[in-house]
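Lab notebook, bench 4. Still working through the backlog of constructs that have no structural model yet. Next entry is a single chain of 267 residues. Request: give me the structure tokens for it.
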Amino acid sequence: MSNARLAAAFARAKAEGRPALISFLIPGFPSRDGTDELFDAMIAGGADIVEVEIPFSDPLADGATIQGVVYQALELGITPQDCLDFVQRARSRHPDVPIVMMTYLNPVLAYGLDRFAADAAAAGVDAAILTDLPPDEASSAKTAFQRVGLDLIYLAAPTSSQERLEMIGREATGFVYCVSVTGITGARNELPPDIAEFVAKVRRCTIIPLAVGFGLSRREHVEALASITDGVIVGSAYMDLIAKTRPEERAKAVREYTEVLSGRRRP
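Model written out:
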């Protein structure tokens, strides 16, 4: 069973004939006190779900953009507890917005698996992505998260075997994260030509929502994927935008970019 807020967000987007927009940020970037207003700007612009990453020193799935952001956040001393505090503040302002916490396994094990799950749920997290945790090694994490009502989301890649996709389909809750390309994160101009075939392959293995990520950055990407996926995830493009925008203009820029992605504003 999926977390109620997450399930409701996908159901609402489906009823409106569009994929749910999942935006992305990292607490501490661009500054310790500047991320809260960016979360609010994403929601104001039409984001349905927000993915919040806990910085980790070895972000192996992330490309140069997010690696650079992670480094800056770590240099500021951002910890998992800081990220949970950030989520708690966001939850108090946005009680109905689903929040997905993304990180790697090591920070969670260092924090304590059961303790992390309990504290994340208490802060208002709805689901977790542990990027480097495969489903066949995730029984302890899944038990810990399910005990407190959190979904555990797995990644499906174009290189995933049929057997692995079937396992993901059986084990995943919330949604399946479909990695659009073989490689790392980073905004790209074009979608891979075989993305529809890949998503259809994953779709045959599960009944829960699918969300496509890695490389998405434009409204035309959202439109191209609208008929084949339940959600679209935009990450690096947000970080690029924030990095190049002056501090006093960042919230406005993030809101307007989100409006473009969500279809509320013409590109």
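Notes after review: Strands lie at 20-25, 49-53, 99-103, 127-130, 151-153, 155-156, 176-179, 210-213, 231-233. The two ends are 37 Å apart (CA to CA). Flag for follow-up if needed.
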